[in-house]
Amino acid sequence: MAKIPGKTETIENVESATFDPSQATEQVRAVAEQGAEQAKEAFSKLQADAETTQKAVESSFEIAKTTRNELSLKTIAALRASAEAGFTHLEALVAVKSPSEFFELQAAFVNKQMENSIEQAKTLRAMMLKATEDASKPIKDAFEKALNELKAA
């Protein structure tokens, strides 16, 4: 019987746990190996995710670059068409014989230029919207893939 100080009860047949250093070492080693394996897996996944993200960003930049070039060419073509229309209009104005003919020609030119400007703005807007969608698609796809993998895990 063992007496616990400050208590009036006695404990009989108490077995104390024995400490076995060899088992403790094995348990610590097993936990350390498991932790190292989990760290390797986490690092491998992180590295794969980083590579996927890098590819998505590079793809987005390439699409943006291509679109920028297309927009530049389209803008240059629009400016060229506008300049040519302006020179043609000036040639027509030089040949004008009366003020009424001048005002008719000028009104027709302004109306035509407004129509062309509106059409060009619509075309450029559509190109910009498509470019935004195309450039963001690789990143959006990578993000959705990562979310799906998280949900599956």
Automatic annotation (TrEMBL):
<protein>
    <submittedName>
        <fullName>Phasin</fullName>
    </submittedName>
</protein>
<feature type="compositionally biased region" description="Polar residues">
    <location>
        <begin position="11"/>
        <end position="26"/>
    </location>
</feature>
<dbReference type="Pfam" id="PF09361">
    <property type="entry name" value="Phasin_2"/>
</dbReference>
<dbReference type="InterPro" id="IPR018968">
    <property type="entry name" value="Phasin"/>
</dbReference>
<feature type="region of interest" description="Disordered">
    <location>
        <begin position="1"/>
        <end position="33"/>
    </location>
</feature>
<dbReference type="InterPro" id="IPR010234">
    <property type="entry name" value="Phasin_subfam-2"/>
</dbReference>
<feature type="domain" description="Phasin">
    <location>
        <begin position="47"/>
        <end position="142"/>
    </location>
</feature>
